[in-house]
């Protein structure tokens, strides 16, 4: 019984001690001021924030002004204008050259047509002269020397020289002997010049039509 009583007393004492400790702890917690959750500290009032933004914008503007050289901008604009002006000049020059090229082509075509016409006319004249010379030769060959000498003396000397080159040697000798000595000598000299010219041309041309070395 004594032991049981001691246990009861011990339990009572322990329970009382626990209750006192709990009450003391609760009182301390109630006496301690509540700590509020810290709120973010504002960087400044709206007025202060606006002033900060204005200062930042001013600094950015001044920074941009420092990065851009006004002289460089003006120089770039001037060079751009010069390049554009040069491009316009080159374009105008190109158009002028194209116009000149077209004019030259047209003139070349006109000269080609004119040259063809001249060649045709020369062909016609040459053919007519050939026919005329041939008729004179036929006439002189069919006539007696005395009559042929008279005809030879009266025709154009160029025509007479051309005809002399086609007459037979015997016929020509008889005609020249019956002509006036001065007239005969002059025609003979011209005919010799024509013969020499033909000989030189033939000597300077190869058999294949090229120039002789």
Write a short abstract of this structure:
The protein is an all-alpha fold and 213 residues long. The chain is 83% helix and 0% strand.
Please give a structural write-up.
The chain has 213 residues and is mostly helical. The chain has seven helices and no strands. α3 crosses α5, α4 crosses α6 and α5 packs across α7. The longest helix is centred in the middle third of the chain and has 73 residues. The termini are far apart. The C terminus is likely disordered.
Shape: rod-shaped
- Number of separate strands: 0
Helix-residue proportion:
over 70%
Strand content range: under 5%
Features of the shown structure:
213 residues; disordered C terminus; mainly alpha; 0% strand; rod-shaped
Q: What topology emerges from the helices and strands here?
A:
Layout: H1 2-31, H2 46-67, H3 70-142, H4 145-154, H5 157-164, H6 169-178, H7 181-203
Helix pairs in contact: 3-5, 4-6, 5-7
């Amino acid at each position: 019984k004594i032991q049981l009583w001691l246990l009861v007393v011990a339990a009572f004492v322990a329970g009382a001690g626990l209750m006192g400790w709990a009450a003391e702890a609760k009182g301390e917690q109630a006496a301690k001021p509540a700590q509020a959750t810290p709120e973010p500290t504002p960087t400044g009032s709206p007025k202060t924030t606006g002033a900060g933004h204005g200062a930042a914008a001013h600094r950015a503007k001044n920074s941009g002004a420092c990065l851009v050289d006004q002289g460089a901008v003006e120089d770039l604009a001037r060079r751009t204008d010069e390049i554009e002006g040069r491009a316009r000049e080159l374009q105008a020059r190109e158009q002028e050259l194209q116009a000149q090229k077209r004019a030259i082509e047209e003139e070349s075509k006109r000269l080609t047509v004119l040259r063809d016409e001249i060649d045709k006319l020369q062909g016609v004249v040459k053919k007519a002269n050939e026919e005329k010379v041939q008729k004179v030769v036929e006439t002189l060959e069919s006539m007696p020397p005395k009559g042929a000498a008279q005809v030879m003396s009266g025709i154009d000397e160029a025509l007479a020289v051309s005809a002399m080159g086609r007459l037979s040697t015997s016929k020509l000798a008889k005609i020249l002997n019956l002509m006036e000595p001065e007239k005969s000598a002059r025609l003979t000299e011209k005919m010799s010049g024509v013969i020499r010219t033909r000989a030189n041309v033939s000597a300077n041309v190869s058999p294949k039509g090229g120039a002789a070395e």
